[in-house]
Design a protein that fits this description.
The protein is of the alpha+beta class. The chain starts with 6 loop residues before the first helix and ends in an 18-residue tail after the last helix. Strand 12 and strand 13 form a beta hairpin. It contains nine helices and 17 strands. The structure holds zinc ion. Zinc ion binds next to helix 2.
Amino acid sequence: MGRDISKKDTKLLCLKSGGICAFPNCRKSLIQEETDKDNPVITGEIAHIVAYEPGGPRGDATFPKQELNKHTNLILLCGDHHKLIDSQPNTYSIRVLQAMKQDHEATMRSLHQPENAEPPVAVIKESLHSSLLAVSYLPAVVFAASSEYNDRQKHEVRERIKYPSDRWELTPFLLREGHLFAFHDLQEEENPFRSVISNRDIQIIPAQELWSSAEGKRRYQALLNYALIKYTTGLNLQYDPAHRRYFFPAAKNKDERTVIYRPLNQNQSKRKVAWPQKQKATGKNKNLWIHLATSLRFHEVAPLRWCLSIRPERHFTSDGCTPLPPKQIGRRSTRLKARMYNHPYLSEVHFWRDYLSRGKPQIILNFRNQSVVIDTTQLLTFEIEWPGIAEDTKPFNNQVCNHDLFSYSELMQAIEGEDRDCQDTDEDGEEELDDE
Ligand SMILES: [Zn+2]
């Protein structure tokens, strides 16, 4: 079927056809590979869609003659299908062959140029940074001993506790219905509560048993929260029981307070944490102090998986120590809005994380033989996929730090303290207890 088809039109047709018969579902390759004895052979045949001879099958006298041998009027077929279309010109009309060629060449294009395919729906993969720190270790048991002190005699008990020499060893306790509950091993002779409990009938209650009831969990959380209050006192924070938040008090002589803290793996930083508001025009104090504050809560986020949440807040006073009456503070203004990409919020979460951990990779609440270890190397991050919002992305680096030798040995000590038998014991008397 030579008839002066140019080399260029031949090449264009063969390339656009991908060397494959254009007949639907034939897919026969039109090149036979060479053999030991013979050269490769092209078995494809070029057929005219509008016949070259006006009087032949699919002839059209009105079709421009100079278009007849163009690749656009040609179709590449195997021998069998070439024979078929020429034998059944009424079935394989001009229109049918044009559609066949168009479909085939489009299929070839999509195979070779995937970018021409329909673009996939744009989905952005991002990390969502939470304000949660993972709790890696928790006391496995709570000790209970009978005590002659009742829940209103907390102060008397506090006065009689034999405080440990290590100021970071914390002594949280609860008094309920004639019993004292603590994370400290009350069986130990030298335990801090020895003067306020009876040595008989000391119970060891597995933590998981406590967590399985709402009351037990509340009791366990109350012990954790008391431990936090004691821990943060050591960091010069004050606890505001009305709002259950921790805040920086003014410095001595009612000066503004700044703290030096060490962001993980970074140089020291300084930050203003309690300061008086001044009139812009006059520079005079406005009788309003702002104190950085945070709410800290332990949550069981999944069975046996606990987290500590950090929620930055503000505490307001009139003079650095007298809280403003609630009327003057909208609830709104004491809580910072948390938004996915709210940079100042996340920076403040990081400030608290660094300050509370004293620049270490973990916060340890130490109860001598047991402890809480909170991993501060990273805020928990969740991978999400969503169709993003243009120009709404702002990368936030979640700093990671590594343990150094000292912090590692501290961690090991804390873990080894956990490594105790936790035997099931009978817990007499279901107690209905309220969180304080
Ligand atoms: Zn074929």
